[in-house]
Amino acid sequence: MSEYFAMGGYAAYVWPAYGISALALIALAVVSWRAMTRAERLVALSERSENR
Amino acid sequence: MQAYANPQRFLTFARKLTPWTWGAAATALIIGLYLALVAAPPDYQQGDAARIMYVHVPAAWMAMFVYGSMAMASAVAFIWKHPLADVAAKASAPIGAVFTALALVTGMLWGQPMWGTWWVWDARLTSVLILFFLYLGYIVLWSAIEEPTRAARAARILALVGAINLPIIKFSVDWWNTLHQTASVFRTDGPTMPASMLTPLLTMGLAYTLLYVALLFVRMRAEIASRRLRTIRLGLEAIPA
To answer: Of B17, B45, B55, B92, which is least packed with CB atoms within 10 Å of its CB?
Structure first.
């Protein structure tokens, strides 16, 4: 198992490459999703108050 | 507001598809990561460092593909004045910027053990860095110009002019002497890679493409909602007290 994680001596390059990719894409997904739910909720709220 | 007649149909469609796009992207990512990190053999020259390829190359593909989509959407916005085209282009930019940054960073992490350097100012690396700055410039342009129609126009022009950089990136490794290797998948004489490495690479490429679609839908929905919010607020302010 530890041999696998050693990546043939390239662990210091392989794992950061995958780690940074995962972090950046997850962060982008979370930020985008939050912006969407927030904006859609605000639209729904103001449309409701408009129709009153 | 006639501009919203069309997005309404898109929104119905996008809302239905959003969970499926995320499901498809996640499935392809799990399979792709298994193939890349477990099933694929180490390279006979580069050993396990070659596994960086499976996150580096798809990110670089997407960096160019997203910019190409952005430029095409900008052309559509110019010619047919389609209201969704600007939304699609604007929503794409941050996604493309992240893919480009990842291509650059994973490239550095691959370059250091293989070339002995994190960075060289060769044609491939420099043209991709310019692509990253084009994305940043495009994003800044949208937020710097307050009037939306003028911002849209400036952004379209930048996206279209910047597209000149795409063939330069693609052919940089053939036109100039670069440290970066030439294409080994999209070649006129077919891929030069064994299937044991090509399959994981193409699976990761598919996963990144699906991820782009999933992110694009979410960001387009956010953009449509914030534009709608803006018109609602402007409308409310217009009512005399």
So the answer is: B45
